[in-house]
Design a protein that fits this description.
mainly alpha, 12 helices
Length: 249
């Protein structure tokens, strides 16, 4: 694409006939669209912001010259965000090569939701482990044809919104009033008293910049957690990693 874009306005001068130039443009367009579809299906972002402005201009000018031939209508939104906002209608924004095949559509949605679960898992491993299990169950039901396609989409919309929103605050007690406390509660065997003790220990031990390659400051936090968890090394390391992923700290 980059090589073609650099030469697109001078194909005749470069020695190509009009027919050859048209054939090359068609081939480049085909593979550019295919590339976008593969990225979408695999759960990778399809966002032209990754290109420098000049490169985006070249692609828009010489490859995507016809606005009506857009690969999809995602703009700057991810597929997951579209599902959250539009529900099952988000499918209409998929490229025709994907949305016209129910299996391809389902796999594309599943791959994108799976990627979100993996990305968000460090924030609350137990919650997202449950979300992963729900996704696995829904995929199995689809493969066994236990659901109609429309029912599958409806359930996938509900699951996607749960994954995107994270744990709902109203399902916890009033004392678990921050996302960090709720994450500790979920990952400390739902022991509320223990979760609150770890939260207090972390808050009293953290110092500014404790995450930024400062082993002494991080060690201070780890020791505070270990004091509450009675020195269970594996558990301490797991909770320290959880604490590091929380914006509250």
């Amino acid at each position: 694409m980059r090589a073609y874009a650099n030469l697109a306005s001078e194909m005749t001068e470069a020695g190509y006939s009009e027919a050859e130039a048209a054939a090359i443009k068609a081939e480049v367009t085909f593979y550019e669209n295919l590339r976008a579809q593969v990225k979408l299906h695999s759960g990778d972002a399809i966002d032209l912001k990754q290109y420098e402005p000049a490169m985006r201009h070249l692609i828009d000018t010489y490859i995507r010259a016809e606005e009506s031939e857009k690969v999809s209508e995602f703009d700057d939104l991810s597929l997951v965000q579209l599902i959250v906002e539009r529900g099952a209608d988000a499918v209409k924004a998929l490229p025709a090569a994907i949305r016209n095949k129910e299996k391809a559509t389902a796999e594309t949605i599943e791959n994108n939701v799976r990627k979100l679960i993996i990305d968000e898992s460090p924030i609350n491993p137990k919650y997202y482990e449950k979300m992963s299990e729900l996704l696995d169950a829904l995929i199995l039901q689809r493969k066994l044809a236990a659901l109609s396609y429309q029912e599958y989409l409806a359930r996938m919309v509900v699951l996607t919104r749960q994954v995107k929103a994270g744990p709902r605050a109203e399902t916890y007690t009033a004392s678990l009033d921050t996302a960090a406390k709720r994450a500790l509660y979920d990952n400390l065997d739902r022991d509320e008293a223990l979760a609150l003790k770890v939260d207090r220990a972390v808050r009293t031990s953290i110092q500014d910049g404790w995450r930024n390659n400062n082993p002494m400051k991080k060690k201070r936090v780890r020791q505070a957690i270990a004091g509450v968890l009675d020195g269970d090394e594996a558990r301490v390391d797991r909770i320290l990693a959880l604490v590091e992923s929380q914006n509250d700290y």
